[in-house]
TrEMBL record:
Residues annotated as domain Glycosyl hydrolase family 59 C-terminal lectin: 520-694
InterPro entries: Aldolase_TIM, GH, GH59_C, GH59_cat, Glyco_hydro_59, Glyco_hydro_59_dom
GO cellular component annotations of the record: lysosome; membrane
Family classification: Belongs to the glycosyl hydrolase 59 family.
Matching Pfam families: Glyco_hydro_59 (PF02057), Glyco_hydro_59_C (PF21708), Glyco_hydro_59M (PF17387)
Entry protein name: Galactocerebrosidase
UniProt domain Glycosyl hydrolase family 59 catalytic: residue ranges: 68-361
Enzyme class: hydrolase
Active-site residues, Swiss-Prot/TrEMBL: 211 (proton donor/acceptor), 286 (nucleophile)
Organism: Anser cygnoides
Primary localization: other
Species lineage: Eukaryota, Metazoa, Chordata, Craniata, Vertebrata
């Protein structure tokens, strides 16, 4: 039966012919082998093409390889799970099950989250637990919630925290977190202690500063501080960039002792000699970052194996966990699955989820790799792992070059061709009689991929078996019988963002600190109870970051939060605004906003500004450099006003408190984009009764 059927397609055992051939038919078997017939589609011996054959030995008799530390994914870096929290049940729980529930979907072993620092960290900002030095709040954002949901499904999942940005007070005026290492260590350890005190979460590993310079003194201070507080079990991962920290570790024993894991990002499956000399765990602590179609799945399949085969890396962590942010932000759909429509409930379980399952459902952290070369002679790779108790899992991938290119680094050319692999099981595996078989084939022609399909078990004859491998396939062969592929109900169909959307922010005990669907791109916008206003504006949305944070990228000089449908052309945005900063404070509402994320400084659109000095402006950009109209408004700080921006075709107009303030401003570009709110600088300001209507 061919691979699309339910038989043992592609599989044979070295002492048996096709499924159902009696073991006594030895002579027939040898004729069959000599003819070069394969286990591919079609009856044996009919039109079969001889395949090159190679043999591989799996033996634990001489000891084992490195300990496996698990497969994981990143939430954050940043705001990649922003829309997930807004999903209604049962869809939100279904998404979480696909990610974290053991023997269900991706069954992840590791969850790595951003320690929010109020700055832009790729697709948005994540709020800090300490906006200011005397401020602590361990309920901001959604990473606490996500870690608890992961732990609820898998109590054994490992948790990692890593900062991308830091609040301004850490640097005391400098855009640098290392000048006062004890202050930075205090800030990070506060997050760790808050996770335990308020959420009963035990953090397993902590990072330094994502993809930025490391500082040896700070790492040692952090290690000493953790140890003094009895947190010796928390490992430090360094430096979440390249391998360069290993140069210092091999000559600085105190630094080497402080670091438990050498973590590199996008290593291209290669390590460096100094990293090996540290004798530490080596991880690809961020990888993948690729559009989650079949090529993305091919990338993920290849590096999950080859990070160990080529680079001795015992953990691979994908950026990102779930593409739950507006797709037109940078790196849209670069998650293991996609959940970017909480308003409709639609989500999509993408191919990388099932590629992940090939490893995660049949291994656990604490298993060990076998000492094998891992390269297939016809191209591709395999890894073999054991729990030391007799269980064996083999994962094979035959991804071709053009079908497995990750977003970075560039992939040198290589060839993969159909082949036969014969495996000899030795040592404690010699007595294995049967292996369960799970199979995926990525189809780049007709999009009819086969994903994580269970085939008939494979009989092992006298410690050996053979398997025919085509290109762009993944096999898991395992003694474990616990694998499952969920057959859940289909989610609702996709729908665009509602064309008529309102939020009055009137919620006394919000489940999250941020209003649904608003995606902060500079600054942080939080629910606020306005104790000084007993009237219509008790519950508002407030921008709360008043100093430029220690940045990871070039944050804007203005704050901005986007919302809606990037395809919107004609729209009317109305919002009540309250300027808190006297004299030079200011706020805006906007439409056709065309950028965000790491590109937020270059954002264009139609921006309607009012300032505390009684003036207004209309600009074509967030930076305020392209002035389309300006004049007097009479607006002052410490008073509520209603702004309305109307964009129709090539013309825009604005109202203040229901009366026309400006009109007939010609708009040439951009032609479409989100709605947005924001402030002139890092300043307190409030927003209420937001309403957008698009056509």
């Amino acid at each position: 039966m061919g691979r699309d059927g339910l038989g043992t397609a592609g599989l044979g055992s070295s002492g048996m012919g096709p499924a159902g051939l009696p073991p006594s038919s030895t002579a027939m078997l040898w004729v069959w082998l000599l003819l070069g017939s394969s286990w591919g589609p079609g009856p044996p011996g009919v039109g079969a093409v001889p395949r090159p054959t190679a043999t591989y030995v799996l033996d634990d008799g001489g000891g084992l390889g490195r300990q496996f530390d698990g497969i994981g994914a990143v939430s954050g870096g940043g705001a990649t799970s922003r829309l997930l929290v807004n999903y209604q049940e049962p869809y939100r729980s279904q998404i979480l099950d696909y990610l974290f529930k053991p023997n269900f979907g991706a069954s992840l072993h590791i969850l790595k989250v951003e320690i929010g620092g109020d700055g832009q960290s790729t697709d948005g900002t994540e709020p800090s637990h300490m906006h200011y030095e005397n401020d602590e709040n361990y309920f901001r954002g959604y990473e606490w919630w996500l870690m608890k949901e992961a732990k609820k499904r898998n109590p054994q999942i490992k948790l990692i925290g890593l900062p991308w940005t830091f609040p301004a007070w850490i640097g005391k005026g400098e855009n640098w977190p290392y000048d006062y290492p004890h202050v930075t260590a205090y800030y990070i350890i506060s997050w760790i202690l808050g996770a335990k005190q308020y959420h009963d979460l035990d953090i397993d590993y902590i990072g330094i500063w994502n993809e930025r310079a490391f500082n040896s003194k700070y790492i040692k201070v952090l290690r000493q501080s953790l140890d003094r507080l009895g947190l010796r079990n928390i490992g430090i991962i360094a430096a979440d960039g390249d391998w360069n920290i290993s140069k210092e570790m091999v000559v600085d024993p105190y630094l080497n002792d402080a670091v438990q894991v050498v973590g590199a990002h996008y290593p291209g499956t290669k390590t460096v000699p100094n990293a090996l000399l540290t004798q530490k765990k080596l991880w690809s602590s961020e990888d993948y970052s690729t559009f989650n179609d079949e090529v993305g799945a091919g990338c993920w399949a290849r590096i999950l194996n080859q990070n160990y085969v080529n680079g001795n890396m015992t953990s691979t962590i994908a950026w990102n966990l779930v593409a739950s942010y507006y797709e037109d932000l940078p790196f849209g759909r670069c998650g293991l699955m996609t959940a970017q429509e909480p308003w409709s409930g639609h989500y999509k379980v993408e191919a990388p989820i099932w590629i992940t399952a090939h490893t995660t459902q049949f291994t656990q952290p604490g298993w060990s790799y076998l000492q094998v070369d891992g390269h297939l002679e016809g191209g591709g790779s395999f890894v073999a792992l054991t729990d030391g108790l007799g269980n064996l899992t083999i994962i094979i991938e035959t991804m071709t070059h053009n079908h497995s290119q990750c977003i970075r680094p560039p992939l040198p050319h290589f060839n993969v061709s159909p082949q036969r692999a014969t495996f000899y099981l030795r040592g404690s595996f010699y007595l294995v009689k049967t292996l369960q078989v799970w199979y995926s084939r990525l189809d780049f022609e007709s999009a009819n991929s086969i994903l994580f399909k269970q085939l008939h078990p494979l009989d092992v004859w006298r410690g050996s078996f053979s398997i025919d491998l085509d290109v762009d396939e993944v096999y898991t062969l395992t003694t474990l019988k616990t694998g499952q592929k969920c057959s859940c109900p289909e989610p609702p169909p996709p729908q665009p963002f509602p064309s008529n959307y309102k939020d009055d922010f009137n919620i006394r005990n919000p489940p999250f600190s941020e209003a649904p669907n608003f995606a902060d791109q500079t600054g942080v916008f939080e629910y606020f109870i306005n104790g000084s206003d007993p009237g219509d504006h008790v519950f508002t949305l407030r921008q709360v970051v008043v100093q430029r944070p220690i940045t990871w990228v070039s944050d804007a000089d203005q704050t901005i939060s986007i919302i809606g449908n990037f395809r919107w052309v004609n729209l009317t945005v109305t919002c009540d605004i309250y300027i808190e900063k006297q004299d030079d404070g200011g706020v805006f509402i906007a439409g056709r906003v065309d950028n965000g994320g790491i590109y937020v400084r270059r954002t264009k659109g139609v921006f309607f500004w009012v300032y505390a000095d009684g003036t207004y402006r209309v600009t074509g950009d967030l930076a305020g450099e392209e002035v389309l109209m300006k004049g007097l408004s009479g607006v002052r700080a410490s008073a509520w006003h209603t702004l309305t921006l109307n964009i129709q075709g090539a013309s825009a107009s604005g109202l203040l408190n229901g009366y026309p303030l400006w009109e007939n401003v010609t708009i040439s570009k951009p032609s479409n984009g989100w709605a947005a709110i924001g402030t002139r600088s890092f300043e307190f300001a409030q927003f209420d009764n937001f309403h957008v209507e698009a056509s």
